[in-house]
Predict the structure.
Amino acid sequence: MTKVLISADLEGISGVVHGTETSPEGYDYARSRALMTAEVNAAVAGVLDGEPGAEVWVADAHGPFRNILPEELDRRALLVRGKPRPFGMLGGLGADTDAVLFVGYHARAGSGPAVLAHTMNGVNLDVRVGGRSFGEIGLNAAMAGYFGAPVVLLSGDDMACAEFGELVPGAATVEVKRALAQAAAVALHPEEARERLRTAAAGAVVGRGEIAPFTVPGPVEVEIDLARPHTVDLATLIPGVTRAAGGRTIAYTAADYAEAYRVALLVGQLAGITPA
């Protein structure tokens, strides 16, 4: 049976433009999570249009990983919910995964104009893998590639689509909004976005054999620029992680990409700790 994983974020959903719309404590979060659930359902339907017998897993991949409304999700899909968990935004990923779709994704930290651009949190200023800047798109695409799974589709704003296109040429993109600034965009009507996403998902799954997995061979050298000095102090407590020149950068070398990814996830968790 074909297994397809949909990793769903919130910042790249049509109509979502501001941080207060993506936080459980924020204005209009309830609407945003409903829009997110509906776009995920469109992707699920598209996958099953293209491959009716597929097993579809959905990884809720925004913030607390508890955004998608379970009772509103397409009942044919399995939902991976909550954190912490193995492989973070790619919960459910494994050697049995045949294809991955990124729904509602955003561009990396420092991109502009790009709606709600960041990388994992508000503390990572830049993440470089082998000297190349990666956002969540690159980090997660390479993790999927580690297991031989191609990322066949991404939906989000135009900047996210362009970033993905550079990493995975030939893969499908669905531009649901055009960025004007960090918190402004010209967006498709949600129903139009869903229709385009469903059609593209069907074609992407059918044509998955034409998309090569994005891989990063080991050993993997990683550098992370951090906004908070305290996070640097904490990160250097991890064996193998050192403070690089400049004081705000940490560096480490991992044996393979899975190890590199796990350390990056741990550093991201440390970013949420404030000084005692």
About this structure: The first helix runs from residue 29 to 50.
